[in-house]
Amino acid sequence: MQQRNLLRMNFTRRWIATHDMGAGSPALSVCRWINSTKYFQLAGPVLIQNRRFERLLKRVGLPVSEINDVAWLFGLWLGDGTTGSTDIAVNINDVDEIQRIQDVCGKLGVTAAGARQTPSQVGTLGGRVYIRRPNRFRELIKALGMGAKGSKKLETWFETEPISVRENILAGLIDSDRHVVRVEGEGPIEADEDEMECATRNNDMKEAQRLYIQVIIISIYQDLATGVIALARSSSIKFSIGHTEAHVNKYGMNMRFCFRITLMPCSALTNVLSLLSIPYKYRPAPAVVRRLPVEYRFKVERESLSRVLQEIYIDRQKVDFL
Questions:
Q1: pLDDT (tens digit, 9 = 90+) per residue, 268-280?
Q2: Which class is 43-47+153-296 in CATH?
Q3: Is the N-terminal amide bond of 45 cis, ω within 30° of 0?
């Protein structure tokens, strides 16, 4: 077996062959020297715009003219939908979101009842919008390989869909109640070394920081987290990813292992926030959307292929983010 040089990127746990990172990749560019010990690599944006999602809509009988609304509803379902159905959990005070669900479903020829509470939810803000079956939106979910209990994923091929589709999927995820921890904070964050070497991106980030500090998306599903990363990177949104171990919180509730994806401010992300339904998460669209390459830094480690494969196996036993 031919031995290859591989680069281990410090923003993932994945090993990537050097020849896989050339200009032929839609999301990646050639590595360059920064100093004697570090490389950096430009990632995104992906400007290819395929029509696979559109073809799926045609196949299940959903109107292609409403593709952006379908993308938003799909993102919302990924965040707060019931895995075995198309029902969506909501905060009963988020009347704008509830109304948008009903409006979108109306355009799709699907009936969505207003938010209802189960007896156990009375006295809380929890509720659910029931999308009646049979419906074509459920057929779309099934065509995407979901619909069974405990199954949620966001296919990485969405990174090459039209940018408006990517943005609306992210907007639906951010609108979902459980997946946004914080959209704004106190004080600006410091520009790191990558932005300092890219003045245009640095200025773009500072403009967005006037409106919010960061967006945090949380998911228990690895395949969903992987898809969110692909959408962010392809849309020129810088991100970081971490996780929270399973634990018992201060209220005595058992919390599952989850991925925590942080999206950093930029005009591309601000444009996504302009598509949201919930007023306290919404931000006005920027005058100009700049889709700029994002720099990632990493050190080079050269090892035998057998050692690399061993490391990959060990990482996958823990958490394989990508």
A1: 999 999 999 998 8
A2: alpha beta
A3: yes
